[in-house]
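Q: Can I see a sequence and its folded structure?
A: Here is a first one.
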Amino acid sequence: MQKWMESPPGQVTAAVMAAIDAGYRHFDGAYAYQNEKEVGDAIQQKIKEGVVKREDLFVVSKLFSTFHEKHLVKGACQKTLADLKLDYLDLYLIHWPSGFKAGDVLFPTDENGMIIPSNTDLLQTWEAMEELVDAGLAKAIGISNFNHEQIERILNKPGLKYKPANNQIECHPYLTQEKLINYCQSKGIAVTAYSPFGSPDRPWAKPEDPSLLDDPKIKEIAAKHNKTAAQVLLRFHIQRNVIVIPKSVTPQRIVENFKVFDFELTKEEMATLLSFNRNWRICQFIQAKTHKEYPFHAEY
């Protein structure tokens, strides 16, 4: 389950508690979402109630771009752990391949509204990530929003100690990511899909944007299985061996999103969903377009 930036604090705690009660054990967060304290409160509450133990949970967070300098990585991870009230993360990802100017401003921009980059090297940042595993702060490390060329650079790094365990990317039937998924899986890197519903609550949505949840062909497939469009969109990933993280703060939908293990999409339905690809990306991060590590100039 993904916990995204637009949810008010109290709502986040309630959502995580509802999710644990519904059976969720994988929680995806990030420093950038600015709600890790609330997530930590929910987890501690459920541990206290005896509903779960820490080792039952798989907790993910992400190193933000203002902490790419090698000497800042450990402190950033420790801040996240303190907020979550945990001793270790199951998985810690580099949130974006592009490093930003260090400081308290999440998105430092110049007079043209473009991100001010840091002069950091991905491979140096990766070395600092590896040190977190050795220090016991993270059980596994990975990446997010990386293209295959950036991944290749890490895999080919001299003296590589740990390869990325996971690449978390935007993925849904309008952005099927076949090449990148095949590449990652061929290298033994698990893939996680974010925005599986197309992030309908994103603040920058335009009225003319396509809507996955309202797509008549997706609704038609859902009706055949007596499921919702959301459930079909989640099942789509599961059948591609892709981990999927739906984001919801509505208890009823949190429960609904979990009921995706009792049906199967046919080969034809999977092919139909894949045929909807139009390389439509919701999280384009335009302000970072001029950054040397902007990931979306590459084909995949």
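Q: Show me another, different protein.
A: A second, unrelated one:
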Amino acid sequence: MYEMGKLLSFQQLQLKYNLKSNQYFKYLQFRDYLKKHIQGYQTLTLDLLDEAMNSKAESSNLISYLYNIILNIELPSTEAIRVDWERELLIKIPKETWEKYLIYIHKYSINARHNLIQFKILHRLYYSKTRLNKIYPNISPTCDKCLSQNATITHYFVSCIKLHKFWNDIFDMFTKLFNIKLDPNTEMIIFGSMEDGNKLNTFQKSLLNYGLITAKNILNVGNLRQNVDFKCRKRHILKKCVFCSR
């Protein structure tokens, strides 16, 4: 019903699509719907799909034309997410560092599921109990494991008291593996090892990040009401890291 962003009259549609006069009432119904639900319905801005459909590009150049349109799509801003992390972790995250975190999401593992976990954590897509409480007030925001603090994303994956031994044992394992003292660090667990302050080389950082994402996967699929049994989990993570290092 639109051409170049402008609503066509019924007469114009008749000429264009050879419509019969008895379709006029349907046209009025649809126009009334647009009037009620879309402000400025008579003129709409063309989106990328409209531009592609109205393209005069030859069929031989159509793929290139569509590819260029996709490249020019502006990604949604993640600034609000960065600010939310700063507020929750009580730290400052420079924009340059934040961009590195976003880029590194796809470098954690060759396992797409692991990368998806990191993507969902970084973009705060997990429905923590505090988030669910805002949507459904009848749901308690209290953590199901410790039963004492609100279950934010950080609490869910890192700071719950029931997870202290879990993360201490994991960092102790990597301390012995690298012969470099590594202490549990909330920012490192959430975002990964990116900076040089921990004196790890590139290979060690990659191995540590792979171990951290494997550990977060264990927490994600585990029974959150039970304490994590690290005896068998430690062997599982170590085996994964050894396999990754080959």
